[in-house]
Amino acid sequence: MGAHISIPMYQRAVPQRYRLIGQRCRSCGKVNFPSKAVCKYCSQGTTFENVQLSGRGTIYSYTIIAGGGAPPEFAAEAHCKGSYPVAIVQLEEGPRVIAQVVNPPEEGLTIGMPVKAVFRKIYEEEGVTRYGFKFIPAI
Ligand SMILES: [Zn+2]
Fold first, then answer.
1. From ligand 1's centre to the CA of 21, what distance in Å?
2. Is the pLDDT of residue 1 over 60?
3. Which of 32, 112, 125, 131 lies 20 to 30 angstroms, CA to CA, from 7?
4. Cα 86 to averaged position of ligand 1 atoms, centre (Å)
5. pLDDT at residue 6, rounded to an integer
6. pTM of the prediction?
């Protein structure tokens, strides 16, 4: 089963996802991304201020998604490229996000490699092209 995200749910998430807007918890000061109703760090904070994330971070961990393991919405891409890396990126503001890494170096990714977010087409579903961020090496 794929990670289906309905059009309304997708559209609600667009402002934060497109512009990398995080939210700083007024209780503990940590940055949540994507937005949460209750702070995931202190489990108490419910008021936040928006923070523009830089998109810069480092690779915390990564894996290579091979064609057979790709979720259905990425089947076309897996068919074109064979396999592609997906990383957990530690953003410099604190949150960790999972995203695809494009243009990886020939020798492969390494833990701690600096990366930066780029805005890309992610996939198409129900006739709507969905955009979001991926990461490219920042070295
Ligand atoms: Zn908090």
1. 16
2. no
3. 32
4. 28
5. 77
6. 0.77
Note every long-range contact of 95-102, with CB atoms under 8 Å and residues 24 or more positions apart, other chains counting. Answer: 95/22, 95/31, 95/32, 95/33, 95/53, 96/60, 97/33, 97/57, 99/132, 99/133, 99/134, 99/135, 100/134, 100/135, 101/59, 101/62, 101/134, 101/135, 101/136, 101/137, 102/134, 102/135, 102/136
Say how many Å lie between the CA of residue 65 and the centre of ligand 1.
33
Q: What is the 110 CA–ligand 1 centroid distance (Å)?
A: 31
Position 33, amino acid: F
Q: What's the CA-to-centroid distance between 37 and ligand 1, angstroms?
A: 11
- Give the Å distance between the CA of 15 and the centre of ligand 1: 22
Instruction: Tell me if residue 103 falls in helix, strand or coil.
Output: coil
